[in-house]
Amino acid sequence: MPELPEVETIVRGLTPLIVGRTVCAVHIHQARLRALVPPTLPGVAMGQQILGVRRRSKYLWLEFTRGGILVHLGMSGSLRLTPGTAPLLKHDHVEIVLDNNTQLRYHDPRRFGLILWAEDSFETHPLLQDLGVEPLSDDFNALRFYHATRTRRGAIKPLLMNARLVVGVGNIYASEALFLAGIDPRCAAINLTRARCARLVDAVKRVLEEALQAGGTTLRDYRDGQGRPGYFQRQLRVYGRAQKPCRVCGTAIRALCQGQRTTFYCPRCQR
DNA sequence: CTTTGCACCTGTTGGC
DNA sequence: TGCCAACAGGTGCAAA
User: Fold this and answer.
1) How many Å apart are A9 CA and C11 C1'?
2) Is residue A120 predicted with pLDDT exceeding 90?
3) HEC-encoded secondary structure of A154-192
């Protein structure tokens, strides 16, 4: 479900609402997620104050005085702040009860996400060790991207989604960025010129920033930390628009499969 | 080292 | 209306 703009929207929305709150209790209703929710989570989190909410890649981090809670939302996860009186829904796997009668609820029908306790600092956690650069940082730039693509003979679109190179770009925004850059998603990464790498880097940053402005993309069930949908789906240029006319040239948008994921592109605007 | 295919899981959708 | 296959925002791992 969430790519970088969606996770960042949740982080920004939750921060003013939960920083400073203390954890009163943690209830685990379903521990079998991508990784097992540690049974020690309630004990170690109990009584601790939330000092901050941070993001790295598509991971979200609730920071405590000692350690923190690491959350990934997978394809269908959400983390919402609800009144303590709100009824427990199917797939509400973990409840974090706060000291002002609200709860953070981790909800995830497909259970591809995870929520766990880490003693380590955020940056040194094993799950975050092999991640690439943040796309909105200066570390993601034309020069480095060009160099990184020199050994890559595969298509550019799956590479854009490879988190060891650059994080946060999922199936929606990879298609969107390639459209903005005018690059065919099947183009071998190694064949991109310096100029095209520069265009693509700019396009990734632009599309992520636009989506952030719109509060993310809600295709079906994405909601932010307060249960609100995003609105970027209204501005999607190619994703989910197979057979529909390109917003620039009118040519029918096409869909194809790359790495078991659907790619959308305009055969005229993208070469 | 890079690339590819699959597995993980449930819910929704579209065709017949 | 019902059934069933295909598909869905991610990631890690094995194998080629």
Assistant:
1) 21
2) no
3) CEHHHHHCCCCCECCCCHHHHHHHHHHHCCCCCCEHHHC
